[in-house]
Specification:
Helices cover 44% and strands 15% of the residues. The chain is of the alpha/beta class and 376 residues long. The protein has three domains: 17-179, Rossmann fold (3-Layer(aba) Sandwich), CATH 3.40.50.720; 187-293, 6-phosphogluconate dehydrogenase C-terminal like domain (6-phosphogluconate dehydrogenase C-terminal fold); 307-374, Alpha-Beta Plaits (2-Layer Sandwich). A five-stranded parallel sheet has the order 3-2-1-4-5, sandwiched between helices. Helix 3 runs parallel beside helix 4 (105-114), helix 6 packs parallel to helix 10 (243-270) and helix 10 packs antiparallel against helix 11. It binds nicotinamide-adenine-dinucleotide (NAD) and prephenic acid. Prephenic acid binds at residues 102, 128-132, 192, 227. Pathway: Amino-acid biosynthesis; L-tyrosine biosynthesis; (4-hydroxyphenyl)pyruvate from prephenate (NAD(+) route): step 1/1.
Length: 376
């Protein structure tokens, strides 16, 4: 094992693992593997991205004379993923090669068409984990913990190559789910690509909104727009790579939109009690109730990793620091933190992510110390 690789829990992946594309996904994977004691070689088309990934601790830049990788993970944007997979299959003739791109069918087709016998060592994959920021600076060793990781074997993939990719997912805390490439693309059109567009549509309406209106923004807007901050170029590549399923989902949304606009036009013209106005509006919200109730983890499905304690914090110097030290005095570790603050308001909300078992005791302790704990 090379220097600087920390001691770790036992894993099936022995490495070395070469990560090509050391942005958010590649560097997060590097961090997670290194935390598990697996040696990681890094490569990127951008020397700066490579240096940053090295500096955050995601691995060591690949160099001549390195041991051959047992596995190569391609974490480049989808439009160059297939050509990178093909190059890595040729460069490392015994390595299992996977990619983590958000679309699968176009890449599987390119690999099947051009890889020849190498295709046996290729297995597509897609961790359903990410965030709205790009690059290694946003990388997180825990990014994959508790998340599904779709494994997409091709018709030629060797069983041991499939097992290696499933093991990789498990070793970084994810749950491997096997799907065909087109089934994967149809699924993510609904659960990932349409949500990205919906967030962008809503946030785009805010470009011309008057400042006082923006000052009223509450949690509803924040909930539906987080991913509107995503990288436009990456997402354009993802969307064209899954064009037909995304267009199909959008046509269904367009039908709903047409029904809602027609109902609102009736109400605007003939008054709120106009026949045919409330019904379609209630129907679309009720359909959303059914859909949101089916999202695992949101309403009693899979357990969340952390619980949340929400505290009202006066917008005064030192108050946030006082909150943090009192949480520390209560013996609770803050795993994550979100601050919500509306312009011109004298208070903000601090949403503290803590271990689920710490939620109640921390709420009681903060309440006892005079903090306003918000039930959400
Ligand atoms: N961002 C997410 O939430 C998310 C989640 C799951 C999967 N993915 C997929 O993971 C992949 C990477 O996404 P990301 O968010 O890490 O992007 P990113 O922009 O943070 O990183 C991509 C990296 O690839 C490098 N790169 C580009 N072309 C290259 C090439 N030809 N050879 C080598 N390196 C190259 C870039 O320099 C950059 O460092 C994409 O295919 C994306 O679809 C993204
Ligand atoms: O949570 C986020 O920020 C994400 O957008 C992650 C997300 C998703 O839609 O779930 C985005 C695209 C990826 O291909 C996989 C994961």
């Amino acid at each position: 094992m090379p220097e600087n690789v920390p001691a770790a829990h036992p894993v099936a992946t022995t490495g070395p693992v070469k990560v090509v594309g050391t942005g958010l996904l590649g560097a997060s994977l590097g961090l997670a593997l290194r935390a598990a004691g697996v040696p990681v070689q890094l490569a990127d088309a951008s020397p700066t991205a490579l240096a940053l990934a090295r500096d955050v601790g995601a691995g060591t830049p690949a160099a001549d004379g390195d041991p051959q990788p047992a596995m190569v993970v391609v974490a480049t944007p989808p439009d160059v993923a297939a050509e990178t997979v093909l190059a890595e299959l040729a460069r490392h003739p015994v390595a299992v090669v996977t990619d983590v791109a958000s679309v699968k069918a176009v890449i599987a087709e390119e690999v099947a068409r051009h890889a020849g016998a190498h295709a046996a060592r290729y297995v597509g994959s897609h961790p359903m984990a990410g965030r709205e920021r790009s690059g290694a600076a946003a990388a997180d060793a825990d990014l994959f913990v508790g998340r599904p990781w779709v494994v997409v074997p091709g018709p030629e993939s060797l069983p041991e190559a499939v097992l290696a990719v499933r093991s990789l997912a498990a070793d970084v805390g994810a749950t491997a789910v096997t799907l065909g490439a087109q089934d994967h693309d149809d699924a993510v059109a609904l659960v990932s690509h349409l949500p990205q567009l919906a967030a962008s549509f809503v946030a785009a309406r805010l470009r011309e909104a008057p400042e006082p209106a923006l000052g009223l923004a509450g949690q509803g807007l924040r909930d539906v727009t987080r991913i509107a901050a995503s990288d436009p170029q990456l997402w354009a590549t993802i969307l064209v790579g899954n064009a037909a399923p995304v267009a199909r989902a959008l046509r269904e949304v367009r039908d709903d939109l047409d029904a809602v606009v027609a109902a609102l036009d009736r109400a605007a013209q003939d008054g709120p009690l106009a026949p045919g106005s409330t019904g379609p509006l209630a129907r679309v919200v009720a359909a959303g109730n059914v859909g949101v109730g089916r999202i695992p983890g949101k309403h009693g499905g899979a357990p969340r990793r952390y619980g949340e304690v929400t505290v009202l914090v006066p917008d005064e110097p030192g108050e946030l620091g006082r909150l943090f030290s009192e949480v520390g005095e209560a013996g609770v570790n803050i795993e994550d933190l979100q601050l919500e603050h509306s312009a011109g308001q004298p208070v903000g909300l601090a949403v503290l992510s803590v271990l689920p078992s710490a939620v109640e005791p921390l709420e009681e302790e903060l309440d006892r110390r005079g903090w306003r704990v918000v039930a959400r």
